[in-house]
Amino acid sequence: MKSLIETEIVTAIDQVKIEFTETTDFLRQGQKELKTNVESADSTLELEKINADLTNKMSVLHRRLESMERISRSHNMEIQAVPEKRNENILTLVKIFTLQ
Protein backbone atom coordinates (compact mmCIF):
# COMPACT_ATOMS: atom_id res chain seq x y z
CA MET A 1 0.00 0.00 0.00
CA LYS A 2 2.81 2.36 0.92
CA SER A 3 4.54 1.72 -2.38
CA LEU A 4 1.29 2.39 -4.27
CA ILE A 5 0.92 5.75 -2.47
CA GLU A 6 4.55 6.61 -3.18
CA THR A 7 4.06 5.77 -6.85
CA GLU A 8 0.96 7.92 -7.03
CA ILE A 9 2.76 10.81 -5.30
CA VAL A 10 5.76 10.55 -7.64
CA THR A 11 3.43 10.42 -10.65
CA ALA A 12 1.52 13.48 -9.40
CA ILE A 13 4.79 15.36 -8.73
CA ASP A 14 6.08 14.47 -12.22
CA GLN A 15 2.81 15.68 -13.74
CA VAL A 16 3.06 18.98 -11.81
CA LYS A 17 6.67 19.37 -13.02
CA ILE A 18 5.58 18.81 -16.64
CA GLU A 19 2.72 21.30 -16.33
CA PHE A 20 4.99 23.84 -14.62
CA THR A 21 7.58 23.46 -17.40
CA GLU A 22 4.88 23.92 -20.06
CA THR A 23 3.60 27.03 -18.26
CA THR A 24 7.05 28.58 -17.92
CA ASP A 25 7.80 27.80 -21.59
CA PHE A 26 4.53 29.48 -22.59
CA LEU A 27 5.32 32.54 -20.46
CA ARG A 28 8.87 32.69 -21.84
CA GLN A 29 7.52 32.65 -25.41
CA GLY A 30 5.04 35.41 -24.58
CA GLN A 31 7.84 37.47 -23.04
CA LYS A 32 9.96 37.03 -26.17
CA GLU A 33 7.05 38.19 -28.34
CA LEU A 34 6.49 41.24 -26.13
CA LYS A 35 10.18 42.08 -26.25
CA THR A 36 10.15 41.82 -30.06
CA ASN A 37 7.08 44.07 -30.23
CA VAL A 38 8.68 46.66 -27.95
CA GLU A 39 11.89 46.65 -30.00
CA SER A 40 9.86 47.05 -33.18
CA ALA A 41 7.90 49.95 -31.67
CA ASP A 42 11.15 51.61 -30.52
CA SER A 43 12.57 51.26 -34.01
CA THR A 44 9.40 52.73 -35.53
CA LEU A 45 9.47 55.67 -33.12
CA GLU A 46 13.13 56.33 -33.94
CA LEU A 47 12.36 56.29 -37.67
CA GLU A 48 9.40 58.63 -37.17
CA LYS A 49 11.64 61.02 -35.21
CA ILE A 50 14.28 60.95 -37.97
CA ASN A 51 11.55 61.48 -40.60
CA ALA A 52 10.15 64.50 -38.72
CA ASP A 53 13.65 65.97 -38.36
CA LEU A 54 14.40 65.50 -42.06
CA THR A 55 11.02 66.95 -43.04
CA ASN A 56 11.71 70.00 -40.89
CA LYS A 57 15.19 70.45 -42.42
CA MET A 58 13.76 70.08 -45.92
CA SER A 59 11.16 72.75 -45.16
CA VAL A 60 13.84 75.15 -43.92
CA LEU A 61 15.97 74.50 -47.01
CA HIS A 62 12.95 74.99 -49.27
CA ARG A 63 12.21 78.37 -47.69
CA ARG A 64 15.86 79.39 -48.03
CA LEU A 65 15.88 78.36 -51.69
CA GLU A 66 12.71 80.35 -52.39
CA SER A 67 14.23 83.36 -50.66
CA MET A 68 17.45 83.07 -52.66
CA GLU A 69 15.51 82.73 -55.92
CA ARG A 70 13.42 85.79 -55.03
CA ILE A 71 16.57 87.83 -54.30
CA SER A 72 18.18 86.57 -57.50
CA ARG A 73 15.15 87.61 -59.56
CA SER A 74 15.13 91.04 -57.93
CA HIS A 75 18.69 91.61 -59.22
CA ASN A 76 17.86 90.71 -62.80
CA MET A 77 17.92 93.39 -65.45
CA GLU A 78 15.77 93.42 -68.55
CA ILE A 79 16.89 95.34 -71.61
CA GLN A 80 14.15 96.12 -74.12
CA ALA A 81 14.19 97.41 -77.70
CA VAL A 82 17.61 95.93 -78.49
CA PRO A 83 17.66 93.49 -81.39
CA GLU A 84 18.73 90.00 -80.40
CA LYS A 85 21.52 88.35 -82.38
CA ARG A 86 22.99 84.88 -82.24
CA ASN A 87 26.18 84.43 -80.22
CA GLU A 88 26.03 87.98 -78.89
CA ASN A 89 28.00 88.90 -75.80
CA ILE A 90 25.65 90.46 -73.27
CA LEU A 91 28.46 92.04 -71.25
CA THR A 92 29.78 93.82 -74.35
CA LEU A 93 26.30 95.15 -75.12
CA VAL A 94 25.84 96.44 -71.60
CA LYS A 95 29.24 98.13 -71.69
CA ILE A 96 28.43 99.77 -75.01
CA PHE A 97 25.09 101.10 -73.79
CA THR A 98 26.49 102.35 -70.50
CA LEU A 99 29.25 104.29 -72.29
CA GLN A 100 26.79 106.12 -74.52
UniProtKB/TrEMBL annotation:
Protein name: (apollo) hypothetical protein
Species annotation: Parnassius apollo
